[in-house]
Amino acid sequence: MIEILFILSLVVVSALLAVTSRNIVFAVIALLTTNISLGVAYFMMGAPTVALFQLAIFAGAVVVFFVITVMLTTGGDVEFDDDSVPWINKTTQLVLAAASVLVLLGVSLTREIAFPYLEYASSALETLMFSPTNYDDITTAVSQFLWQHRGFDLVSQSFVVLAAVICCIALLKIRRDHE
Amino acid sequence: MHSLAKDKEGPRVMYPITFFIVTTALLFVFGLVALTIKRDLVRLLIGIEILFNAANLFFVALSTQHVGMIDPLPQSIVMMALVLDGTVIAVGLALALNVFKHYKTFDIRKLRRLKW
Questions:
Q1: pLDDT band, residue A128 (cuts 50/70/90)
Q2: CA distance A26 to A17
Q3: Which residues pair with B107 in a beta bridge?
Q4: Could you tell me if B53 and B30 are in contact, meaning their C-beta atoms sit under 8 angstroms apart?
Q5: Fewer beta carbons within 10 Å, N or C terminal of chain B?
Q6: A46-92, pLDDT tens digit by residue?
Q7: Which CATH number fits the domain A1-79, given the four candidates 3.40.50.1580, 1.20.120.330, 1.10.287.690, 1.20.120.1200?
Q8: What residues of B are in contact with residue A138 (Cβ under 8 Å)?
Q9: Helix axes A135-149, B72-103, angle to 10 degrees
């Protein structure tokens, strides 16, 4: 129990640092810590495939994208010196406070009413649950489930990723043309 | 008690959902604050990624609330969401690079030429 508390507190603290750090490089490093900690948390919770994707994509590729962007642009400059607070008007502060209160209220309500964990989808899902004996079983079952029940989603997703790649190429090509 | 040293045995302990709910709420608020008060495009993308992480963590946490039982549906959906989140961030960073090329800054208040 202590391990997951430690990992989750590390997630929260590093996310806070990623948001509040003035140096963008430190912010990206804090984001990397957040993603790695979340990957470890997924693994401890019994989701090894999700942990693998989290480490490979979020802690790997996305952080590399952030580092490359920072290297090609500001390169570790601190945040804009002129204050970032006055441009937040009263309405924004009010909306932010209201959203935070709503989130915390939703959290407390979720805990109080004992959220029916298995009923977020159909009742047929319960038959798909299984009892694993080791992490290999989980990985195999999730892969089988993905291909058997979510095959169309996977194919559609590949087109979305292809569209994103084309979009990135087009954006960066425009940049080169201007040079 | 489950620990990383006992990986071969598989997960046996159900962690209390309260831990994950509090963590998710805090991550959500951090991401929301970053999206609201920051002006740097890269920091806005960092806030978006923290929001993604909050949603994924809550989804996986809800699926692991039965001792010794695994629900593969949320895990597969979160896997697909992770890939799509990565593409969203990649396209956002490509846009940010283009913005920096044109405006020499990441300050979203300076992007006036987008107005019509």
A1: low
A2: 8
A3: B40
A4: no
A5: C
A6: 888 899 999 999 988 899 989 988 888 876 565 554 445 555 666 77
A7: 1.20.120.1200
A8: 10, 70, 72, 75
A9: 80
